[in-house]
């Protein structure tokens, strides 16, 4: 029976469908609870209460995903529009942990800068729901639904510092460019739908054979979607918005989006390209290999000259997107498991770096210049050690996670015959060491600054967790890699 | 577990030491280094020379998905470098002056020593790589935070970027070797039996040899060395020049030679490397002749001596390769002593310019005495240690191609010139220039004494080294 004609939608079916997406359902429940909490509590107590609801919600959602990972079988839900396979569960765990860390980090930041608290936490939840929908959708329609839910929440969060001109500018830019990218994706989806006659991704894979490689409709669809996806993962040459938006947005937002949006967009790329268009792999692999190469070159070279830390990390993010794309291009089990491993550990090292900057922020402005880091070793040595770990990990020094992530990605790349891409990545990694180490110079250089760095318990927890994970998951990568291995075999992949 | 303690104890000890007050940090650091040396000694005494495989092996599944194992093991080659590393680390910590930044310095020195020990013990290619690159982190911070001169940060960054350029390409080689040998293993002993096609070997040899040549450093890849050695504080140079350079030569011997026995495609790498080695011997000697800065003179003499080691390795016979290992040990001992003495003299006189000093022997007779011994060891006087190693490497090179040995011997001729000019100029003649503050301290003499004792011991009875060198973990060496 073709999808959509099943009129006997039974209770058992409904329960099964809800079960498949239960991590999302749970989070939506807590999201609504958070809104109600915000409405009923007195103003003074709202922020803390909503933060608490959000953290519990994320934890509950993560627990649900973990439970389903172990005990449940992934299957399609809602007429093959969504799924609860291990790929989706892997990302749901990732996004839920990111949500917890973001709340933990932004809690004091919002107080210090005098921004509204409860709305922020609610928006974080909405964005995470969007990300989770993206990771678990198996239809172009639901993919777009998740993408927009995520993007619209982020547009608001970028402009969250309402009195800050930079923040407003970032929001406006992100809105325009993001809308533009969404339009590209939607146009591409429409063309694919026109060619395949369905929006359900596994069905597209069945209907489009290798012979479609000559079909201009499909090719244009791939191209347009590829452009839109490259926007979302901030890959060059579609990265122009990244430094401006990262610089303007409040730092916790930047930390959140630099990791979350990227992981969600990669989930989307894998779902749509590897899942829906496996027979057209040569076409989109060529496109993505080009994007990967330009991202690595542009990101790393542009990062060298930056004087703003946020912009430096933005360009570093462009370069990192290039590395991850190697895994996507290489494809197959090894490629995808490397991508999943890298996205998971990238969350810790990149979030950690932004988290340190968040703690250094002053009431009037975010920490953004090299001088803000001066004398950190003396002012707060755990933070200095943390920053060192994050930078060395991003640069790919063993035994940190950055090294093992690259090792897996590069192994997949060489194995799939993309040696030239890997050699380029390696040469660009050498360049990257220059600017990552440059961040450490003010941290460890002797300085006269002595003022301490106040840090709340929750933000200490976020940084400690990131630091421990950045080293621990490198010294012992096996379990996470195994999870990535399972996650890389979603049910609709060929 | 014995071998694991050899890198874990310095690493953990170093981390803890960094939090202690300076004087205590130095002595606790020395204690940690001494413990590591004791364990290394224990390993040496229980070492079986007739066992033709890795010994003291440890194997733990690490990343089974990629057949990566935590594999440690030693053989007759790595044993000596392991001991050298532990020994020189102890010397370096003992030679560290106590200032308010000693704790961090000693901690980083121990961490670097842990990385080096790991490099010498790893028998899994990925594990080797992990140690290889991880030791760059303490080395970078040592050079940058504790370096001397006007711009240690620049020297440190140059050193790291230079080394990384080589070692990251080596990472591609590590992956490539795994893939062309059929996704089976990273075990060095196994890989030595699974040689890929000559054209694949050609490419892989290139990326590995490049990384090792930069680290050694071999002539034309040495340009990080003057800056780095100039910036490095003297106690750091004891292990930095004494052991870290050996890691590159060790890489040639452990990986490039056994894993790629026939790296021939467009040309034959087995001839390129010895020619570069001879070039390094002569270039280093000539540059040493031209230096007026004592520290830089010793630095360039190191380039020349490392050339002998690489020449011995690429002689592809037992004399050359055993000679190379002996020479690695010898050079480690000599260069450590030379840098210490030169550093102490410069400290007393107030300048490193050798043309500004003369007749120091009259004012610091004991220093002159030990300096003389070390000078003679460095220029390869028979009866002292360096002679044996250089002789054996040249003998091996002669068997491969007499021309290589003939040109290599130019280095032997030039060594006395630059070493004796340094010694005579500074020590002999009528006293002139600045007056040294004092003669060598008793404590410094104590630090130096074991080095000098070893120069005599190895020079008189090199068989102590070669007897244990018969045990080899891989096929492909001593052919």
Structural class of chain B: mainly alpha
Tell me, rounded to a whole number, the average pLDDT of chain B: 90
Radius of gyration of chain B: 21 Å
Task: Give the CA-based shape of chain A.
Answer: globular
Taken in chain order, the helices and strands of chain B follow as HHEEHHHHHHHHHHHHHHHHHH
How many runs of DSSP E, i.e. beta strands of chain B? 2
* Number of separate helices of chain B: 20
Q: How would the global form of chain B be characterised?
A: globular
**Mean pLDDT rating of chain A:** 90
Strand order of the largest sheet of chain B: 1-2
Estimated helix fraction of chain B: over 70%
How many structural units, i.e. domains of chain A? Answer: 1
A few lines on this structure:
Chain A is mainly alpha-helical and 494 residues long. Chain A has one domain.
Explain this structure.
- The complex is a heterodimer of chains A (494) and B (479).
- In chain A, helix 4 (86-113) packs parallel to helix 14 (332-360), helix 6 packs antiparallel against helix 7 (165-196) and helix 14 runs antiparallel to helix 19 (457-475).
- Chain A is 77% helix and 1% strand.
- Chain A has helices at 11-20, 22-40, 43-71, 86-113, 118-136, 140-158, 165-196, 201-207, 216-232, 241-248, 251-276, 281-304, 309-330, 332-360, 376-379, 381-395, 401-415, 419-444, 457-475, 478-487, and strands spanning 76-77, 82-83.
- Chain A is mostly helical and 494 residues long.
- With 479 residues, chain B is mainly α.
- Chain B contains 20 helices and 2 strands.
- Chain B has helices at residues 2-17, 22-45, 76-94, 102-121, 125-134, 136-146, 152-180, 188-191, 198-215, 224-231, 234-259, 269-290, 294-313, 318-349, 360-363, 365-378, 385-400, 402-427, 442-460, 463-468, and strands at residues 55-63, 68-74.
- The chains are: A mainly alpha (494), B mainly alpha (479).
- The A-B interface holds A 337, 392, 396-399, 403-404, 406-408, 410-411, 414-415, 419, 422-423, 426-427, 429-430, 433-434, 437, 441, 444, 477-478, 481-482, 485 and B 61-66, 126, 129-130, 133-134, 136-137, 140-141, 144-145, 153, 157, 160-161, 164-165, 168-169, 171-172, 175-176, 178-179, 183.
């Amino acid at each position: 029976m073709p999808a959509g004609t099943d009129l006997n939608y039974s209770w058992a079916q409904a329960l099964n469908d809800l079960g498949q997406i239960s991590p999302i359902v749970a989070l939506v429940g807590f999201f609504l609870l958070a809104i109600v909490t915000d409405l009923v509590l007195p103003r003074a107590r709202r922020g803390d209460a909503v933060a608490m609801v959000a953290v519990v919600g994320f934890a509950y959602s993560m627990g649900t995903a973990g439970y389903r990972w172990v005990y449940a079988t992934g299957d399609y839900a809602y007429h093959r529009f969504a799924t609860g396979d291990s790929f989706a569960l892997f990302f749901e765990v990732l996004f839920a942990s990111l949500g917890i860390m973001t709340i933990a980090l932004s809690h004091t930041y919002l107080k210090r800068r005098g921004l509204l608290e409860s709305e922020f936490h609610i928006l974080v939840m909405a964005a995470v729901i969007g990300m989770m929908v993206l990771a678990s959708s198996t239809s172009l329609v639901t993919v777009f639904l998740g993408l927009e839910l995520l993007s619209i929440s982020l547009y608001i969060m970028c402009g969250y510092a309402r009195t800050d001109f930079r923040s407003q500018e970032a929001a406006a830019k992100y809105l325009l460019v993001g809308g533009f990218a969404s339009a590209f994706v939607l146009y591409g989806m429409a063309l694919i739908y026109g060619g395949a006659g369905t929006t359900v991704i596994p069905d597209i894979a069945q209907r489009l054979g290798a012979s479609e490689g000559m079909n201009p409709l499909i090719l244009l669809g791939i191209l347009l979607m590829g452009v839109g996806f490259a926007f979302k993962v901030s890959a060059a040459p579609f990265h122009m918005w990244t430094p401006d938006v990262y610089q303007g947005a409040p730092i916790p937002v930047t930390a959140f989006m630099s990791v979350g949006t990227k992981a969600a967009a990669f989930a989307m790329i894998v779902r749509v390209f590897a899942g829906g268009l496996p027979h057209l792999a040569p076409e989109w692999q060529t496109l993505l290999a080009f994007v990967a190469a330009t991202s690595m070159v542009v990101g790393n070279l542009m990062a060298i000259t930056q004087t703003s830390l946020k912009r430096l990390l933005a360009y570093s993010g462009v370069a990192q997107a290039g590395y991850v794309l190697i895994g996507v291009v290489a494809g197959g089990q090894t490629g995808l498991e490397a991508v999943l491993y890298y996205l998971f550990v990238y969350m810790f090292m990149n979030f950690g770096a932004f988290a340190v900057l968040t703690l250094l922020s002053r009431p009037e402005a975010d920490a953004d210049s090299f001088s803000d880091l001066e004398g950190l070793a003396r002012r707060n040595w755990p933070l200095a050690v943390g920053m060192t770990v994050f930078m060395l990990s991003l640069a790919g020094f063993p035994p940190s996670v950055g090294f093992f992530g690259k090792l897996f990605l590069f192994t997949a790349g060489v194995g799939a015959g993309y040696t030239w891409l890997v050699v380029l990545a390696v040469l660009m990694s050498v360049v990257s060491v220059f600017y990552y180490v440059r961040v450490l110079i003010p941290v460890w250089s002797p300085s006269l600054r002595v003022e301490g760095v106040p840090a709340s318990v929750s933000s200490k927890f976020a940084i400690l967790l990131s630091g421990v994970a950045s080293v621990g998951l490198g010294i012992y990568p096996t379990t996470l890699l195994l999870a990535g291995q399972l996650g890389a075999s979603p049910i609709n992949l060929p | 577990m014995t071998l694991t303690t050899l890198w874990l104890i310095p690493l953990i000890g170093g981390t803890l030491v960094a939090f202690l007050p300076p004087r205590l940090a130095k002595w606790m650091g020395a204690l940690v280094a001494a413990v590591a040396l004791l364990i290394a000694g224990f390993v040496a005494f229980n070492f079986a020379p007739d066992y033709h495989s890795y010994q003291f092996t440890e194997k733990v599944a690490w990343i089974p998905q990629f057949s990566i194992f935590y594999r440690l093991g030693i053989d007759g080659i790595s044993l000596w470098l392991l001991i050298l590393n532990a020994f020189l680390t102890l010397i370096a910590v003992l030679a560290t002056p106590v200032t308010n930044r000693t704790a961090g310095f000693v901690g980083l020195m121990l961490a670097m020593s842990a990385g080096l020990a790991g490099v010498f013990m790893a028998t899994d290619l990925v594990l080797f790589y992990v140690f290889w690159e991880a030791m760059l982190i303490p080395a970078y911070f040592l050079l940058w935070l504790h370096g001397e001169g006007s711009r240690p940060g620049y020297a440190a960054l140059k050193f790291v970027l230079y080394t990384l350029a080589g070692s990251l390409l080596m990472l591609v080689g590590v992956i490539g070797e795994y893939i062309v040998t059929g996704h089976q293993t990273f075990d060095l002993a196994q890989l030595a039996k699974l040689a890929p096609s000559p054209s694949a070997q050609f490419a892989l040899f290139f990326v590995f040899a490049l990384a090792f040549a930069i680290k050694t450093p071999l002539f034309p890849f040495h340009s990080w060395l003057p800056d780095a050695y100039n910036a490095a504080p003297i106690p750091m140079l004891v292990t930095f020049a004494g052991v870290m350079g050996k890691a590159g030569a060790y890489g040639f011997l452990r990986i490039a030679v056994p894993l790629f026995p026939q790296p021939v495609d467009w040309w034959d790498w087995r001839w390129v490397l010895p020619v570069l080695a001879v070039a390094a011997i002569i270039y280093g000697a000539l540059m040493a002749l031209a230096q007026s800065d004592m520290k830089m003179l010793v630095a360039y003499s190191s380039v020349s001596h490392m050339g002998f080691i690489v020449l011995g390795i690429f002689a592809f016979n037992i004399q050359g390769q055993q000679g190379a290992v002996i020479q690695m040990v010898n050079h480690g001992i000599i260069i450590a002593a030379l840098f210490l003495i030169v550093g102490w003299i410069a400290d007393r006189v107030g300048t490193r310019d050798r043309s500004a000093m003369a007749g120091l022997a009259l004012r610091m007779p004991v220093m002159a005495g030990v300096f003389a011994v070390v000078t003679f060891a460095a220029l390869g006087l028979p009866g002292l240690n360096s002679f044996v190693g250089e002789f054996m490497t040249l003998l091996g090179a002669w068997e491969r191609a007499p021309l290589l040995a003939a040109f290599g011997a130019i280095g032997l001729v030039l060594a006395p010139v630059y070493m004796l000019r340094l010694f005579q100029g500074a020590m002999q003649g009528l006293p002139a220039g600045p007056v040294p503050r004092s003669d060598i301290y008793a404590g410094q003499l104590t630090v130096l004494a074991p080095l000098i004792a070893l120069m005599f011991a190895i020079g008189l009875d090199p068989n102590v080294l070669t007897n244990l060198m018969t045990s080899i973990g891989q096929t492909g060496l001593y052919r």
